[in-house]
Design a protein that fits this description.
CATH class: Alpha Beta
Number of helices: 6
CATH architecture: 3-Layer(aba) Sandwich
Largest sheet: 4 strands, mixed
Order of helices and strands: EHEHHHHEEH
Distance between the termini: 12 Å
Shape: globular
Strand content: 5-15%
């Protein structure tokens, strides 16, 4: 399976991650989280394979997170409601997401990515 990385073209961290992948010879498929947001079922699968709490899937420093009041609302949302919110607005999703098939990494950490790829 070719790894897939979910990015937002306006995100400097995503650009850094893509450069790191290229510099390290890792061929990936890319998907823009804003132009082509993943479906709720895809996000659920990514979350399940990440092993992280669902709140880690949220870009807590983004404008959409602040505007949507998710700091206060997130604790009261069901998993389904939270995943639906992520699917409805790709800017809510913490990025980049690196899908390696059996494992998903949330956010860019060069050491963690090097160990995983």
């Amino acid at each position: 399976m070719t790894p897939k990385v979910y990015v937002y073209s306006g995100c400097s961290t995503c650009r850094k991650a893509l450069k790191w992948l290229k510099d390290n010879g890792v061929d990936v498929e890319t998907q823009d989280l804003v132009k082509d947001p993943p479906a709720e079922a895809t996000l659920r699968s990514l979350w399940d394979r990440s092993g992280a709490p669902l709140r880690k899937m949220f870009n807590t420093s983004g404008q959409s997170y602040r505007d949507g009041g998710f700091k206060d609302r997130l604790a009261t949302l069901s998993d389904g409601e939270a995943l639906a919110a992520l699917a409805a607005d790709g800017k809510l999703v913490k990025r980049p997401l690196l899908d390696l098939g059996g494992r998903v990494l949330i956010g860019f950490d060069a050491e963690a990515w090097a160990a995983a790829v």
